[in-house]
């Protein structure tokens, strides 16, 4: 895994700020790796695995997510109501109207 300290530090600076963070870039530039690095950072600061939700919409494990309602329903069931929960969604643009799910989860 290639370390990405500049981008990781930028994400860290926005930790716990009430903002939806969006990572963009061309294909295969390391966005998923940045997610992995940030998840490792969260774990090192005391977050448990059940507080980190990873959804990769290119993975066959998530082919059942066909619309924003499926995305919302899946993530909502995993959110810890009494704990901060981080949700990482790879290839979110594959879900039509994904903004509705993201806004509702936020």
Secondary structure layout:
Elements: H1 5-13, H2 31-44, E1 52-56, H3 68-78, E2 86-90, H4 98-105
Parallel strand pairs: 1-2
Helix pairs in contact: 3-4
Overview of the structural elements:
- The chain has helices at residues 5-13, 31-44, 68-78, 98-105, and strands spanning 52-56, 86-90.
- The protein contains 4 helices and 2 strands, in the order H-H-E-H-E-H.
- The relative contact order is 0.16.
- The mean pLDDT is 93.
- By secondary structure, the chain is mainly α.
- A two-stranded parallel ribbon has the order 1-2.
- Helix 3 (68-78) links the parallel strand 1 and strand 2 (86-90).
- The radius of gyration is 14 Å and the shape is globular.
Concise synopsis of the structure shown:
The chain has 106 residues and is mainly alpha-helical. The chain contains 4 helices and 2 strands.
| Quaternary organisation of the protein chains | single chain
Order of helices and strands: HHEHEH
What is the terminal-to-terminal distance? 30 Å
- Can you summarize the main beta sheet? 2 strands, parallel
Assign a percent range to the helix content: 25-40%
Percent range for β-strand residues? 5-15%
Mass-distribution shape: globular
């Amino acid at each position: 895994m290639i370390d990405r300290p500049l981008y990781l530090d930028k994400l860290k600076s926005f930790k716990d700020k009430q903002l939806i963070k969006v990572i963009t870039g061309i294909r295969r530039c390391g966005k998923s790796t940045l997610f992995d690095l940030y998840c490792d950072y969260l774990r090192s600061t005391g977050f448990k695995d059940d507080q980190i939700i990873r959804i990769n919409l290119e993975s066959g494990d998530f082919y059942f997510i066909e619309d924003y309602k499926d995305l919302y329903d899946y993530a909502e069931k995993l959110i810890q109501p009494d704990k901060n929960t981080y949700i990482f969604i790879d290839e979110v643009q594959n879900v039509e109207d994904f903004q509705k799910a993201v806004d509702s989860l936020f």
